[in-house]
Task: inverse folding
């Protein structure tokens, strides 16, 4: 079991301080692999006993077992992508090369972390008969709009939930078990997104979450969730890995709805042609 899997299994039983420790572990596993209890406590602004308690909650026999697991992941090639990027990019100021390395790693890490069973579940829900509601944090709004538009070309009943508070509240008030919610957000989460998803979940909607890891509040109660790697080449998060994951899900929906989706796309193409909407 990987550190991320262990964190997911233990997430419900973690106190706020313990969650800080787990976040520090997942953010920099290489420092856990070769660091001390005191160092991890310092990075997570907690204490040594809290670190040891977290190690046991994750299923290890104390910090020594946690450190051994981190070392095994690093040497086994499960988690060194971010470290390789830092080592390769350090010392050079070529923004093109830095972006190439980081974005390639974002895609690789995001798709490698995707559970095939979760992909199957998500595709089945997105291709089913229920309404699809897509909502996202402000930073992810652009890729959410793209995903919603692509899904709407393949099937009926796909909506974006955004806009003013009254608009969002009105849509949420009419939602329930007939809805599947595709939510995209990473730390620091938009408060309205968390509140809206909580309300939709309480109304019986099924949630599919694309977020940053097992400690995300969007994971709780989700039918399927995916962790994305979003380290940017500059000061802002990258959405390249998230977009790649959305392409996987949309392609899966297209495969499931091949006959009806093909007919819809033919109609759309004919409409574009009739309207001379696109330059040849």
Result:
């Amino acid at each position: 079991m990987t550190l991320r899997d262990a964190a997911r299994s233990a997430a419900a039983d973690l106190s706020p301080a313990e969650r800080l420790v787990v976040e520090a572990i997942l953010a920099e596993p290489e420092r856990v692999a070769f660091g001390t209890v005191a160092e991890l406590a310092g990075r997570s602004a907690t204490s040594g006993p809290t670190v040891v308690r977290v190690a046991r909650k994750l299923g290890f026999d104390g910090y020594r077992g946690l450190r051994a697991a981190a070392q095994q992941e690093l040497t086994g090639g499960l988690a060194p992508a971010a470290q390789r990027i830092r080592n390769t990019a350090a010392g050079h100021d070529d923004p093109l090369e830095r972006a190439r390395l980081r974005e390639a790693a974002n895609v690789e890490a995001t798709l490698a972390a995707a559970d095939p069973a979760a992909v199957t579940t998500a595709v089945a829900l997105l291709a089913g008969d229920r309404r699809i509601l897509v909502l996202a944090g402000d930073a992810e709004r652009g890729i959410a709009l793209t995903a919603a538009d692509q899904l709407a070309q393949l099937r009926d009943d796909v909506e974006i939930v955004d806009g003013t508070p009254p608009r969002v509240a009105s849509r949420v008030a009419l939602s329930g078990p007939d809805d599947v919610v595709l939510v995209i957000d990473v730390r620091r989460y938009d408060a309205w997104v968390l509140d809206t998803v909580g309300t939709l979940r309480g109304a019986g909607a099924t949630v599919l979450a694309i977020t940053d890891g097992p400690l995300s509040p969007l994971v709780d109660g989700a039918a399927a969730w995916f962790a994305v790697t979003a380290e940017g080449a500059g000061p802002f998060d990258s959405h390249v890995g998230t977009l790649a994951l959305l392409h996987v899900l949309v392609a899966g929906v297209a495969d499931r709805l091949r006959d009806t989706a093909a007919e819809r796309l033919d109609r759309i193409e004919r409409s574009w042609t009739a309207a001379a909407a696109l330059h040849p």
